[in-house]
TrEMBL record:
Residues given in the record as ATP binding sites: K58
GO biological process: signal transduction
Ranges annotated as spanning the membrane: 393-415, 551-573
SUPFAM superfamilies: HAMP domain-like, Protein kinase-like (PK-like)
Keyword Kinase: yes
PROSITE patterns hit by this protein: HAMP, PROTEIN_KINASE_ATP, PROTEIN_KINASE_DOM, PROTEIN_KINASE_ST
Keyword Nuclease annotated: no
Any one cellular-component term (Gene Ontology): membrane
Protein name as catalogued: Serine/threonine protein kinase
Record-linked Pfam families: HAMP, Pkinase
PANTHER family reported for this sequence: MITOGEN-ACTIVATED PROTEIN KINASE KINASE KINASE 20-RELATED, SERINE_THREONINE-PROTEIN KINASE NEKL-3
């Protein structure tokens, strides 16, 4: 493997046949050492003391100094490269002629040629191949816009300066200047370039333009993706025939993992008919960039902003239209009331004239309003034709509604059941407690031992579960009581009539100033004979707090469940929406005339089958167009 270094052609071990003293300096540039050599010139490492910068200087080989063609080509390269200031084209700083020896001072490139990476069998990723293709296409598009056609694009003339992440085009030695008619006439019929990378029009000696460089890019991309050149015949004649007749193994027929879109782009670059290739470097760069974004992008959604604007506009104009129609009905009703009555006399009453005038004004307003309604209807139709309600919004809304109704219904049912269950538990406990106290108080009440009765009530009142206790004898005389300050015995006599009987105990639900209370009323009996009544009040506060806690937990559960359902639905919809958007973009791209576009995602579901049908359709369309081109004279 070659070590990275300053690259300008093949390494040279000689400085030429001039003296070392002469080569030690060219103009103000100090020669350091040779760093490369080509068929026409030698390249040296040099130092510019004026700006303290290392650079490369290119000198025409001594044996070619008297050759007019080589001198012309060298000067043409200097003129062509000197026009170009682009990040992916090697920069030319200075051009001169020293003792009839032309030289060119260039940017010193610290890297390796693309050819050396390929000889080392470096495994280029799809993204790296696309990046290289994009950079080359953009650089050549810039060169073509300046009237320069390279005509010798090949891996040896491409330098990688940052691993394989950044490339620069070098060696414009056989470049064509589109405004150099004299050179073009002299080269008519000549074959210039490197055979394996030459376009059919170069081989045939026909006039060339920027599309010939795009053919060469196609050869390079093919070689990077497949690991070998597309045209591999041994003899020049056979090789040229292979290129002109497009007899090469298509990328689709190779056992390499290449996206279908890249295969089609390469195939379009390698068309023998320039009119069937990409027509500019910009067009090729756009296709490669789109393919790269399609492969690497995770967001293929529709224009959400435009969608929301359209939805907002449709809603706004619909509301305006409804208001205008309502206003029209009011005006029509008002105008009907103001319709003048037919007069029988010869003269019209003054009031009637005024009424006619007001009616005329109302009619004018009605006409104006009807015109605005007509315009609003037209605008609504426009918005409606542009309106696209996303499937994601529809499904999420529907799922939210269904899940929301289900959860709310379930929450209400469960909450009521839970509340009733807790209420029954409180009633059971209260009824049992009331019966037990009634049994305990029966004997002292029967013996009229009021001291014991008061002691019992006082002892029981220490239990904070009771709001109040009241014990009455058979004459309804209070014999023992424990009442808070906000309740008087008269309040207990005015309790609501409505009650329920729970375990043979009457229970009333009533409200004091700030408390809800269950009132338990049970007879005090002795040997099945009623001897008094016990009234006991229990607070509902703990029951209400437990119900609130239950409701809060169920609301939290409802929100979590609804959020999970909506989130899961959104995730599923996004997974479904992405292939739909991908297919939609592919169709849009094809409708613009870019028939080389293919869907590169591999899927094993129904969308995968749909992608394959789309790719097959585009293949058939391209094949038919190719056959038509072949039939044309």
């Amino acid at each position: 493997m070659n070590n990275p270094g300053h690259y300008y052609g093949k390494q040279s071990s000689r400085l030429g046949n001039k003296s070392d003293v002469y080569l030690a300096k060219v103009g103000r540039y100090h020669i350091k050492q040779p760093i490369g050599a080509g068929a026409m010139a030698d390249v040296f490492l040099a130092y510019d003391p004026k700006i303290n910068r290392m650079l490369a200087i290119k000198l025409l080989k001594p044996e070619h100094l008297k050759n007019k063609e080589f001198r012309t080509r060298f000067l043409r390269e200097a003129e062509a490269a000197g026009k170009l200031d682009h990040p992916h084209i090697a920069t030319v700083y200075d051009v001169g002629d020293l003792d009839a020896t032309p030289y060119m001072v260039m940017e010193l490139l610290d890297g390796r040629s693309l050819e050396s990476w390929m000889l080392d069998e470096y495994n280029f990723s799809t993204e790296q191949i696309l990046d290289i293709g994009i950079q080359l296409a953009e650089a050549l598009d810039f060169a073509h816009s300046k009237g320069v056609v390279h005509r010798d694009i090949k891996p040896g003339n491409i330098v990688c300066t940052d691993g394989v992440g950044n490339v620069k085009i070098t060696d414009f030695g056989v470049a064509k200047l589109t405004d150099d008619h004299e050179a073009s006439a002299g080269e008519m019929g000549l074959v210039l370039g490197t055979p394996n990378y030459m376009s059919p029009e170069q081989i045939m000696g026909d006039p060339v333009d920027g599309r010939t460089d795009l053919f060469s890019i196609g050869v390079i991309l093919y070689e990077l993706a497949a690991g070998h050149k597309p045209f591999t015949e041994d003899t020049i004649i056979s090789l040229f025939a292979q290129i002109v007749n497009e007899t090469y193994t298509r990328m689709e027929d190779l056992s390499v993992d290449v996206p279908p879109g890249l295969s089609k782009i390469i195939g379009k670059c390698l068309r023998s008919n320039p009119d069937r290739r990409f027509q500019s470097g910009k067009e090729l760069a756009t296709a490669l960039t789109r393919l790269k974004n399609e492969i690497t992008s995770t967001d293929l959604g529709l224009n959400q902003t435009q969608m929301l604007r359209t939805l907002w506009g449709y809603g706004r104009i619909s509301l305006r239209l409804q208001l205008q129609r309502y206003k029209l009905k009011l005006l029509q009703a008002w105008a009907k009331k103001l319709e003048p009555k037919q007069e029988t006399g010869d003269q019209t009453d003054k009031a009637q004239v005024e009424k006619i005038e007001r009616t005329s004004q109302r009619q004018e307003k009605l006409s104006a309003l009807q015109e605005r309604i007509t315009r609003s209807q037209s605008l609504k139709q426009i918005y409606r034709s542009q309106l696209l309600i996303p499937m994601r919004l529809i499904w999420i809304s529907a799922m939210s509604l269904i899940v929301g109704i289900t959860i709310v219904t379930g929450t209400v049912v469960i909450y009521k059941a839970q509340t009733n269950s807790m209420k029954n538990f409180v009633l059971d406990s209260g009824a049992s407690l009331a019966k037990m106290i009634a049994i305990e108080s029966a004997e002292p009440l029967l013996s009229e031992d009021w001291v014991s009765v008061e002691a019992l009530i006082e002892d029981l009142s220490q239990n904070q579960e009771f709001v109040y206790l009241l014990l009455l004898d058979h004459t309804n005389t209070v014999r023992g009581k424990a009442l808070p300050s906000y309740i008087v015995p008269g309040d207990l006599e005015r309790l609501p009539e409505d009650h329920i009987v729970h375990s043979e105990v009457q229970v009333r639900d009533w409200q004091t100033v700030d408390k809800s209370i269950f009132d338990f009323s049970t007879p005090v009996t002795f040997q099945y004979k009623k001897i008094g009544v016990l009234k006991m009040g229990l607070s509902q506060q703990e029951l209400q707090e437990a119900a609130k806690t239950t409701l809060g937990m169920m609301l939290v559960l409802m929100v979590v469940t609804l959020s999970a359902a909506v989130g899961m639905t959104a995730l599923i919809i996004s997974r479904i929406r992405r292939p739909i958007d991908r297919l939609n973009k592919a169709l849009d791209y094809a409708s613009q005339g870019h028939l080389h576009g293919r869907i590169n995602e591999l899927r094993t579901d129904e969308f995968g089958a749909l992608y394959n049908k789309f790719n097959t359709l585009m293949d058939e369309v391209e094949d038919q167009l190719h056959e038509q081109d072949a039939k044309q004279p």
